[in-house]
Design goal:
The chain is an alpha+beta fold. Helices cover 34% and strands 24% of the residues.
């Protein structure tokens, strides 16, 4: 059995695969920031790797914008800072679920409304 399956089997009742995946991936990337940067560069998501600070958070809540009907919860948020500039990446994963109504559009709107951000990326 895989580590993922073993951890999932520890959870009784409904098994939230997407949440387990999100937490494992985010934790791995927070411990291996060089792999994170290499992965982002390899897929042309970023071109700069001179970040002095990298913050990774999961299940980040955002209040609904005026044009939205409900709040949002982002799977993974990565904040990359050079000290002068900040780049923000939202990662939405889908495992055993489908996209909510206009979910990615809503996330893009939240991302575009973040203040003091140089580059905004939605994956």
């Amino acid at each position: 059995m895989s580590l993922f399956t073993n951890l999932l089997n520890l959870h009784s009742g409904n098994k939230p695969r997407e949440d387990f995946f999100t937490e494992i991936v985010a934790y791995f990337l927070s411990l291996n920031k060089d792999i994170l940067i290499d992965w982002l560069k390899h897929h042309s998501i970023i071109s700069d790797d001179n970040y002095s600070s990298i913050k990774i958070s999961t299940q980040q809540e955002h209040q609904a914008l005026a044009i939205h009907t409900e709040d949002s919860r982002l799977d993974i948020v990565i904040e990359l800072s050079t000290g002068l500039n900040t780049d923000v990446i939202f990662i939405e994963s889908k495992i055993g679920s489908t996209e909510g109504w206009r979910q990615l559009e809503k996330y893009a709107e939240i991302l575009s409304n973040l203040p003091n951000v140089r580059h905004r990326i939605l994956i």
